[in-house]
């Protein structure tokens, strides 16, 4: 899976939408999070985790935006049949297929 190239600017990138840019950026970064988690699931075994702190720094997310995005992707993954837990203070996102978390996952409670 690699990065897809933008073939054109999004139609929402207009001066008239400046007030909506934070929401538009949130949706775009949420899409990046979905893509990167997908790549992690496809490339790694279930004992590995997705590092949310690296992702957050990469995109300059606030704690509240990261928490919100984590909640969205957790719901979506669980709806697809995956189990999801965080570890390492909420920064390690484990996505796994069994009932029991991987041995390296020490579940955080939120």
Protein described:
Helix content is 44%, strand content 11%. The protein has 3 helices and 3 strands. It has one domain: Winged helix-like DNA-binding domain superfamily/Winged helix DNA-binding domain (Arc Repressor Mutant, subunit A, Orthogonal Bundle). It is an alpha+beta fold and 110 residues long. The relative contact order is 0.14. It has a 3-stranded antiparallel sheet with strand order 1-3-2. It is elongated and about 50 Å long. A hairpin with a 4-residue loop joins strand 2 and strand 3 (92-96). It has helices at residues 21-43, 52-59, 63-79; strands at 50-51, 83-87, 92-96. The model has no long low-confidence stretch (mean pLDDT 91).
The H/E string reads HEHHEE
Strand content range: 5-15%
Structural class: alpha+beta
Whole-number mean pLDDT: 91
Ranges with pLDDT <50 over ≥5 residues? none
| Tally of separate helices | 3
Spatial gap, N to C terminus: 32 Å
The top level CATH class name: Mainly Alpha
Q: What is the overall shape?
A: elongated
Total beta strand runs: 3
Count structural domains: 1
CATH architecture: Orthogonal Bundle
Short description:
This protein is of the alpha+beta class and 110 residues long. The chain contains three helices and three strands.
Which terms would index this structure?
110 residues; single chain; alpha+beta; 3 helices; 44% helix; Arc Repressor Mutant, subunit A; 3-stranded antiparallel beta sheet
